[in-house]
TrEMBL record:
Membrane-spanning parts: none
Pfam families reported in the protein's UniProt record: NUDIX
Keyword Aminoacyl-tRNA synthetase: no
Record's protein name: NUDIX domain-containing protein
Protein source organism: Silvanigrella paludirubra
């Protein structure tokens, strides 16, 4: 087991990222950032963080909330579930990421969505994406993007008023082959910014 890769991944959790003042919201959800370390790197103990890929989804157009937007797998926390259990369940339901394939899971800073959800984000490392597939009821595309690609995006932020709060919202615009122009923004953009701040500190 290449403990150096797992050790570095776990270290991300303890680095300061983007902190948000989350309002008191009764609706709670959890999301998972699936992080793919190439199997060849993992098996040969090659630590190339910039080559790791984050797995995004494009939400199906018929959904009631955030239809067609870029997101991470996630959803409402069911009664009796922990936030981490929700995040792992949703990733399995949306993109067929099996919990048994996950090597390690860490937590990032909480965020919130304009739809009124308090979001608890987690991040899981895995090495095999050959069985990933869309649940077409919820996801229209799976979009893997390397950390290097994400750091290269000309990101920008704006101040918005959401639920009587002033909030800085991050945007990550780019063009994806077979998908077109996308903008990773809102809660997803802010959670991504939290993750990338930690990566830049780590590097």
């Amino acid at each position: 087991m290449p403990n150096n890769i797992l050790k570095i991944f776990k270290k991300i959790e303890h680095i300061n990222g983007l902190y948000e003042d989350v309002p008191d919201l009764s609706r709670r959800s959890a999301i998972l950032i699936p992080v793919l370390c190439p199997r060849i790197d993992f098996e040969n103990k090659i630590l190339n963080i910039l080559n790791w890929k984050l797995i995004f989804t494009i939400r199906s157009g018929h959904l009631k909330e955030h239809a067609g937007e870029v997101s991470f797998p996630g959803g409402r926390i069911d009664h009796g579930e922990s936030p981490q259990q929700t995040a792992l369940r949703e990733a399995n339901e949306e993109i067929a990421l099996e919990p048994s394939k996950i090597l390690s899971t860490i937590k990032l800073n909480d965020s919130f969505a304009r739809s009124g959800y308090h979001i608890v984000p987690f991040c899981s490392l895995f090495i095999d994406d050959k069985n990933l597939r869309c649940n077409e009821d919820e996801v229209s595309f799976i979009v893997p993007l390397s950390i290097q690609e994400l750091l290269n995006i000309n990101s920008w932020s704006e101040e918005r008023s959401i639920m009587q709060l002033k909030r800085r919202v991050w945007h990550f615009p780019m063009n994806i082959k077979n998908v077109g122009d996308i903008d990773i923004w809102g809660a997803t953009g802010n959670i991504l910014k939290d993750f990338l701040i930690r990566i830049e500190t780590l590097l």
